[in-house]
Amino acid sequence: MNPQKKLIRAETYTTNFNSRHARIIKSKSQPIQIDKLFQEKPQQTLTQSQQTEEEDETKIKKDKWMSRIFKNHPNLLEIRERIIPITQKTSFGKLVSKSHTEVKDHISRKVILSLIMQHLDLKGFSETIKILESESKVPFQKHYSEKSRLEPLLKLGIKNIQSVWDLKLETKGYQRESEKFDPETEINDSFLFDEFDEEDEDENKKPDVDIWSEPPTSNKNLIWLDNNSERKEIKNATLNKLIEYLTDETYSNTSFMHTFLMTYQSFTTPGKLLRKLFRRYDVPRGKLSEKKYQEKKKIIQFKVCNVLRFWILNYFSDFNERHIDELQNFLLNIETKEGKTTTVKTLNSILLKKISGNTKKDRKISYSLAPIPIVPKNIFSPTLTLDSIDEEEVARQLTLIDFEMYSKIKPSELLNLAWSKPKFKHRATNVLKMIEKFNEISLWVAHTILLNDKVKKRAKSITRFVNIAKYCKQLNNLNGLMSIYAGLDNSAVYRLKFTFEELSKKTLEQLSSFKQLMSSSSSYKLYRETLNTLNPPCIPYLGIYLTDLTFIEEGNKDYVNGLVNFYKTHLISKVIQDVQKFQQKRYNFMPVIQISKFLTNFPKMSQDTIYELSMKVEPRNSSRSDIN
Fold first, then answer.
1. Banded model confidence at residue 186, pLDDT cuts 50, 70, 90
2. Fewer Cβ close by (within 10 Å): the C or N end of the chain?
3. N-terminal Ras-GEF domain location, by residue (predicted)?
4. Are 278 and 141 in contact (CB under 8 A)?
5. How far apart are CA 150 and CA 121, in angstroms?
6. Is the full-model pTM beyond 0.70?
7. Interhelix angle for 290-314 vs 254-263, to 10°?
8. What are the distances in angstroms from CA 237 to CA 215, 243, 557, 561?
9. How far is 500 from 456, CA to CA, in rounded Å?
10. What is the Cα–Cα distance from 62 to 181, expressed in whole angstroms?
C-alpha cells in the first residue's frame, strides 16, 4: 500500500476516534444500563421474510456482518463506541518488534486508558476524560507534552485491522505477513516503553496518589532510620514522601538528593518522577494566609528547580526526547505565567547546552604529556601478532579500551541487577559490554597459549601474559589484570602440568601474587585493601561491584509494608559511588589504532574448543616424554 494512504488511514481513524468521544459527551445524561441489554424479550411470531432473513444470517459476507449486527442492535453500537479503544488491545499487544513483545507481552488496561485520556486532553475533550475516569476508576494524570502518545500506537495497531477480524472469526493459525517495521509507523522505543515500565505491578507497592493528596506523615507513609546520627535518614517511605523530603521547605539534605537521583530508577521511572516534580511545583494555597503561602510556594518552587538543575547536569542520559519536550513545555508554562525569571533562564541554558553537547565534561583530551607509544616496526603489517608488540604497550592499549567502557557506565545500569535480567538488559549496555570484553580477553589468553604445539612455546606465551598482567597492575588496571589472570587460571590452561614446570621461579611467584590479590577469600579482603591505596586513574575489577550489588539486592526487599525500602537504595548508592570514584580521571596514553584493532577483533571461540585443544597438546595420563 502507498505510505501516504497509510498515513491518511491513521489520521482518519484518529478523527473518528475523537468524534466517537464527542458523541459520548452528548449522551452523558443517559448512561447505558448494561444489564438491561441482556434481559429476555417477549417471544414474537416471525413473518416469512423475517424467517428467510434469519436463515441467511449464516451466509452473510464478512464485510456486511458487522453492519448487520449494529443495525439490528443499536445498543451494542453505543457500547462499542465507548469501549473500542480498549478492544484494540490485541493489536496494541503486538508491537511488531519481537524484542519488545517478549518483554512486554501485554499492555495493561490502565496504560491504554492513560494513553487515551492524554490524547483526549490534547484535543480538548475534558468532559469525556471525566466520564472515562468515572467509569474506569483510572485517575487522569496531566502530561506536559504537546505530542500524543496514542497516535503512534494506533498507526501500528490499525495497520492490518482487517486481519484482526480474520483472527477473531475465521482463522486460528493467523500470522502476520511481515515482521518488519513499516517506515511510516516506526517509532522510538523509549517513547513507548518508558511509560509501560511505570505500570509494572508490585504486590507490596502502595497505589499511587497525587503528591498533594498524600496523607499527613505517619508510620504508614514514612519511617525514619533509627541511628545516632544528627541528620535524619529515611528508612522506608512512599514515593510522594521521598519527593516531599527532597523539596522540603524547611530542610535541606544534599546527600539525600545525590542518593535519590542516583537510585530512583530502582523504584520509579524518569517520566513519572518528572511529572511528580512538575506537580510539586504547583503549590496549592490550602488554609495558609497569603503571606505564608507565598513564602512556602517560593521555597518549594526553588527546591524543585534546584533538583531539576542537578538532575539535568549530572544524569542527563536519563532523559529521552519526550522527557525533554515535557521539560521544555514546563519551563515555557512558568515563563508564560511568571515571566523570564533567573531560575528559568538558568534551567533553559543548562538544558540547551546538554542538548547541543556543549559542556565542559565533553572536552577533548590533551596528549601533550602522554608517553611516546612503543610501536613495533611491522605496525602496518596485516599479519601483526602479539609477539611483535611490546608487553607494556599491550597493557596500555588494553587499559584504554577498558577505561572507555568503564567510564561510560551509568548508575541506572547498576540498579535492579539489570545486567542479569532480560527485561532490564537494555539499561545495562556498558556493563554488558565490559563483561563481554572480560570474557573475550580471558578466552583469548587461553586460546593463544594453546595454539602453541610445543611445551616451551606455551611456557613462553604464559610468561608473556604474566608480564602484560604485571604492567596492567602497575597502571592500576585491576580489571585488565583479572581478565588475563582468568585466562591463565582457565581449566584448559591450568591442567598443563608439563608447561607450568617450564616456567621460571620469578614467573611462578608473580602468578602466585596475582592469585593472592584476586582471591575471593574474606570477601576479596586483600583486593579491597589494595584498591583503597590506589589513586585515579584506575580501573577496578567490575565483577566485585556486581557481586556486592547482587548481595544487597537479594538480601533486601524493594518494598517494606508497601513503602520504598530507601535504606536498600542507600546501600546500593554507596557501591555506585565507589564505581564513580574512578570514572572521572582518564589515562593519558595515546591510542595506537592498529594495536587497538588487534585487541578488539578476536576470533570467536568457545570453552569447549579451547579444552579440546588442551587435551590435544597434553593428553590426560601422558608422560613428559610423550609431549613435545
1. very low
2. N
3. 230-355
4. no
5. 12
6. no
7. 50
8. 12, 10, 13, 10
9. 10
10. 28
User: Is the separation of the CB atoms in 223 and 562 below 8 Å?
Assistant: no
Asked whether the predicted pLDDT for residue 545 surpasses 60, the reply is: yes
Give how far the C-alpha of residue 126 lies from the chain's centroid of Cα atoms, to the nearest Å: 33
- Residue 135 grid coordinates: 467509569
- Distance, CA of 495 to CA of 336 (rounded, Å): 74
Amino acid at 354: K
d(CA 390, CA 548): 36
Kindly report the CA angle at 373 between 372 and 375, in degrees rounded to 5? 130
pLDDT score of 465: 97
- Classify 477 as helix, strand or coil: strand
> Which pLDDT tens digit goes with each residue over 468-490?
999 999 999 999 999 999 999 99
Measured between alpha carbons, how far is residue 404 from residues 408, 431, 600 in Å?
Answer: 7, 12, 13
Query: Tens digit of pLDDT for each residue in 314-367?
Result: 999 999 888 998 999 999 888 888 877 888 889 999 999 998 876 555 444 555
Within 13 A of 408's CA, how many CA atoms are on the CB side?
14
Find out whether 614 and 495 touch, Cβ atoms under 8 Å.
yes
In which residue are the cell numbers 533486601 written?
556
Our measurement of the distance from residue 34's CA atom to the centroid of its chain's CA atoms, rounded to an integer in Å, reads: 43
**For residue range 409-429, what is the model confidence (pLDDT) as tens digits?**
999 999 999 999 888 888 899
Q: Identify whether the C-beta of residue 433 lies closer than 8 Å to the C-beta of residue 401.
A: no
- Residue position matching grid coordinates 592499549: 397
Express each pLDDT in 206-235 by its tens digit.
677 899 999 999 999 999 987 665 667 899
Whole-Å CA distances, 100 to 16, 423, 426? 29, 9, 10
DSSP 149: S
DSSP for 571-605, written as a single string: HHHHHHHHHHHTTSSPP-----HHHHHHTT-PPP-
